[in-house]
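Sequence in, structure out.
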Amino acid sequence: MSTIKVSQPHSVSIDEAKQKVQGFEDMVKKYGVSSSWSGNHATLKGTGVKGSIDVSSSKVDVEIKLGLMAKAAGVKPDLLQKSIEKRLKAAFEGEG
């Protein structure tokens, strides 16, 4: 199982940070991954994929665990990590 961890610092409120993460959530929905929020923590679930999003006052942490199904489907962990980093950076630094 491959684990991808991405941390994006921010200087906005927690509520605003959660709104900015919405674009990332929309991206993973395309791959059949759903998110379920409880406070400042979201659980991600999908076929061959599980993970979490944690929003604090200074950063957003995303952790994705790819199972055998995701690997069999051709998901490349290094490319996925770069995509997540790019989307989070754009959400927090691009919209500044």
